[in-house]
Amino acid sequence: MTPEEQDLIMGLAFVPGVGRTRTLDEVLAHFGESDGGALALRLLRDAMERRDADDVEMALIVHGAADASVEEFMEPLIELFPAEWHREHEDIVSMLGTLRSPKTAPTLVLATRWVPERLDFDEFRALAVKAIWALGAIPGEEAREALEGLRDAENEIIRENAVKQLARRGEL
């Protein structure tokens, strides 16, 4: 993606006090697409193939602006999550959490145990907490077992949030 195309997509991002400077229709027209979700998925797959962190961000901006379903993004997001070369780990966990799918549970569990190098400073473990809350919203045995396993985690924040989710689910 060219710097000009990145600037065009960045215009879709909401800036407090400014708003958006571009419309989704402008972006779609530039890329010759009529569907924002399809464009976002194409951009995401291309960014993954090229291992381009900036373009992953652009794809997720288009996805959000298009208010596209996350369903079609589940497999690429699961594949992308553990890669160190991008910066979108928290957004990926949030997106996977909206699916409430047992298929996302292994990735969400990974997000509670693994800290990307760029998030190593976060003593509050925001990524893990997001993942635990996402696990709490997934129905079924797999998510319950994952939360029960986290109940014994070394990290107090992880333990406390796992217990809160188990209690919220009525499974304590």
Description:
The chain has 172 residues and is mainly α. It is 62% helix and 0% strand. It is built from 10 helices and no strands. Helix 3 (36-50) packs antiparallel against helix 4 (53-65), helix 5 runs antiparallel to helix 6 (89-99) and helix 6 packs parallel to helix 8 (126-137). The protein is elongated, with a radius of gyration of 17 Å.
Outline the fold blueprint:
Elements: H1 3-10, H2 24-31, H3 36-50, H4 53-65, H5 74-80, H6 89-99, H7 105-113, H8 126-137, H9 141-150, H10 156-168
Helix pairs in contact: 3-4, 5-6, 6-8, 7-8, 7-9, 8-9, 8-10, 9-10
Helix content: 55-70%
Based on CA atoms alone, the radius of gyration comes out at 17 Å
Which oligomeric state applies?
Answer: single chain
Mean pLDDT: 96
Fraction of residues in β-strands: under 5%
Unreliable parts: none
Spell out the helices and strands N to C.
HHHHHHHHHH
Biggest β-sheet strands, sense, barrel: none
Beta strands, count: 0
Features:
172 residues; mainly alpha; 0% strand
Short account of what is shown:
The chain is mostly helical and 172 residues long.
